[in-house]
Each structure stands twice: as structure tokens, then as C-alpha cells.
User: Fold these one by one.
Assistant:
Number 1:
Amino acid sequence: MGPYSNQNWRNSNVEQANLQEGSADGSADGSSYVLRENILDAFDFPEMIEDYLIELEIRNYSPNTIKTYRSIINNFYKFLLTQKNLYDERLVLRAFKRYIRYLKRERKVSQNYIYLVTVVVKKFFEFGGINILKEIKTPKRTKSLPKSLSEDEVHRLIHAMDKSDSNNGSTHHLEASKLRNKVILAILYSTGLRVSELVNLRISSIDPEDRTIRIRGKGEKDRIVLFDGRTQKLLEDYLEKRSQDSEYLFINRSGNHLTPRYIQMMIKDYAKAAGIKKRVTPHILRHSFATHLLKHGVDIRAIQQLLGHSNLSTTQIYTSVDMHTLKNVYDQAKMG
């Protein structure tokens, strides 16, 4: 019995309860039998969901990850509520497969989302002591080449607002915001930081002279990242002109640190101003950082360390060399 079950939930392979006509108690010969119980009655799913999310928070999962897990589990629970006859493992297993089919056919979700749903629901069931989905194999993820910006596009993005006009009534604030945003773009590109790492940057973690930043990344793992000389000058100028007092590096007018959503929208606006037609996000700047380092001959294991990846295979997905560079390397090898 799992910790969220109000009584034993019986597997149909162990005990079948076939309803037969002709007897008040459901049996042809008058003998009694135990009715199987619906899994939604046997387990307190709302309580189990809440406890699982608390467990994730205790284990230092990021707020964004917890939000994603909450959405996936709640959506699957809502689907289960529409299903009938969930009286044994076989039927629940079938309901899960129907849900995956529904996501593919009706919701048209990506293969990577199917992978995530499968992983999350399996972990959630295991947490609640429901060992039903063990036989479900985790589907493969698609490994498409990540998109990245060219070095010229990155330069245009960072300098997109250098010559933009400001309203005279709020020139100081706009100029301060433009400088802050320029530093944000420069740091994202020169360090390869995740947006979640960027918004939580504290001034105390930065060494301007050594051009290093100490990062607390995924899994509470620390790493050191580097930034270039141009970013160093921008950063020093920004810190000198910043008027608010806060431990966080990037803050708004109220002194609160910025949100990932703000960073995403700001980059979108800057890309539009720079005339870049591609979709530009913080993660694409991270891709660009890795790709350009590889292009200029930096060893992939050094890039792995800077990105904070546990596995080299993850880094290899991030670092796709552009076709122009690949052709040059190929031609040089053939000519040699």
C-alpha cells in the first residue's frame, strides 16, 4: 500500500471481480467477492501532487522546473478524471498510453514534450508508491541542431539601442536601462549563462579584475565563468552609474532583481531593433556562445566546463559549427 492510499489497491491479475447477473451480491453461486477500487478513489492525488512538488523544492529544483512539473502532472490528473473503469494496473497503463496518444494527435506536441511527460509522470507515480509505469519505455528525444546567431548578428544585437532616441522627460532612466540591458546581452553572450543564473547574479560573485564570475548552477554545482575585456568595461561603467542599492547585479527601478520573462521580452525587442529575423532568446545566445568558441578552436571539454554540463554529450548538442566553417575545415583537409 502506498503512502497516499486509503486501502490496498488490488491488481486485476491477482484478483478478478467479474460482475455476473443472477445474484444480489454479484456472483452466480451466491458467494461474495471483493470489488476492485478505482485508482482515483484509492489514492489522494491532490495531496500526493502537493507533497511531490514540496519534495522537488526541498531538493533545490528550480522554480521553472517545478512549474513545468506541476503543469504536466495536473494535466495528466485531469485526463484521468475523464476516464472510466480505472480498476487495475492494466487499465491505468492503458489510460496513460491513451493520454500520450491524445497529446500527439490532438495537441500536436513535440517528441521532446512526450519524453518529458513520460519521465515526469513516471517519477510522480514512483514517489506515490504506484509502480504501474515501470514497463513504459522512455521515448527518444529529437536531437535537432540548435540555432545560433552569427558573430555579426550578436554584435548588432548588443549595440541595437546605442543610437535610439530617448524622451527628454525620462532620459536618465532610459539611458540607465539601455546600459543595463547592454551589459545583460554582453554577459549572456560572453559567459554562456542560463537566464535563471543571470537574474540571480549577485555583485559579490563577480571579480571585475580577473574577469570571472562564480555561478551556482543546476544541481547546486558551482563553476567559474569568464567574460571578455569589452564586457568588463561595460560592467564597470554600469556599476559606477547604478544608483540603486542591491546585492543583485541586475535590478529594476524598484530595486528588485529582474525576471526571466523580462529578459526574454527585452531580447526580443532588441533583436527586432537590430533587424534580426531569427528567433532570439537567452538560450540561443548560450548556443551562440558555445558555437563560436568551438569555431575559434576552444576545446569542447573547456566549453563543457564553462556551460556547466555534467555530460559531454550535452555540450556536443549545443555546439554545432556553422556550415561555412565546416566547409573551410573540409577543404583544408582535402587540400592537405
Number 2:
Amino acid sequence: MKLQEMREKSAEELQNAITDWKKDLFNYKLQLSTNKLENTALISKTKKLIAQAKTILKQKEV
């Protein structure tokens, strides 16, 4: 998801997206620990998405 798309979403939609990304991140970490994750870049990309969404939420509060 691009930053512009995130900015267009409502706060509730962003919260739902963050929850989904956190679930994905947890699954990626489990797969990594069992050596089943082929693309390890998914972990850092998911963390980045979560951080961006949280930043946009804070900006919308102000």
C-alpha cells in the first residue's frame, strides 16, 4: 500500500490494516524460526508499513 492510499483511508481502516499487518508479521517470524520463510525482506517491509500507518494516524489526530 502506498502512502497516498494510506492517507486517503479513515482512521478505523488504518487500525484494521495495522492489526492485519501485525498478524502477518507474527506469521513471518514463525516461518523464519522454522526456516520456511523464503523472502526474509517481507519482515522489514511489514514493519515499515506498520510504522508508516501509525505515523499517519498520529498526523490525523493533530
Number 3:
Amino acid sequence: MKIVTRATAIKNLQKFIGHDLRELAVKYGVTTYETGKQNKGWKGLLLEKLAGLETNVSKAPNGLSYEIKSVSFHYVKDNLVPKETMAITMLNEDELRKSEFFESHCWDKLKSLVFCAVTWDGKNAESSKLLSVTSLDYAEDDNLIKEIQADYDLIRQKLIDYGFDSLTGIDGKWIQARTKGAGHGSKSRAFYARTCLVAEIFKTAS
């Protein structure tokens, strides 16, 4: 069985920076709009193929894993900026209460993500370019990670002091814990990376 480590996946993906993902999707047999409806997951499926991952490929040895995340960027006043926040992982109340940041599922997710910046050219646009590929490993110092840790600690302490329902998207500079799920009054929460964090990850890694 072929093993594709995270470092190898990043190197494979970086070969396609600047390429049109729509053209690559046709080449690699990933359905986009051929059925008359947009396949919403086509970019993710394609990026996995470009990374070298197939259904019969082990992502990494010894149980190590990673996730390839597509992040959309668009132009605002001639500047490329993230289009929206990025979901990190669902928040589990019991896990948050007992886990320090570096033992948390939130950190496990963040440190294992492969971030792929792609262009967003409008709803149902038939083209999208791969702009950049990176991960938190490429940051030159750990100040950003320390500040993310401070956000996590703030959210965790608020949960301990005031309960699960007190968690809203207001708290946190880089990450937030906000409602996830259909309709108002949803009890579920998830950790999200604010758009400023998404932008900063690419900035510090460049």
C-alpha cells in the first residue's frame, strides 16, 4: 500500500499552484457541473486526488492523519481575502472542560490541516485557481499559536464559569466557538477559524 504523508501531500499539491481546478477536475474525472447541478464537494475531492490520495491509500503511517481543507479567497478592493470563516471541529462540552489546548481535539485538527487557498469567482462559477498550499508548520514563530491557545483558554474558562449556553461567536481573536446547525436555538457548537486567522496562516507561511 502506498503511503502519502502530509509533507508529501503538500509537495504534490504545490505543483498545481496557479492551475485552473475546473480543467484539472475534467482531467482527473471529478464531476463538477456535468449533471446539471453543482457537486459542492468537487474541489475537496479533486485536491485529494492532486495530493496523491486514493481510496486505497493510507494517508500516513502509524495512525497519523491529516485533512485537506479548501479555503475560498476573493477580491475586495483589489485585495485577496478569505471569503468566510472556516470550520475547525465540533465542540464537545466534556472534552473542552477537561482538556488543555495542546491536548484538545481543536489543536489536533489545526495542527493536522493542509490549507489550500482557492479563488472564489461567484456562485456556481466554472473556474477556480489554486492559490497557495500551506500548514501551521510553515509559520516562522509560535506567537500565532500562543494567541490561538489564549483564545481557547478564554472560551474554556467561560464554559467552566458560565456554562455551555454562554459560548457565542463574540469571544476570541483568532478562533471562536459558535452555533453550528440549522435554525436558531441550536445547542451544538463548533470551533471556527475567523477570516483573520485564515489570512494570517497564509501570510506567516509565505
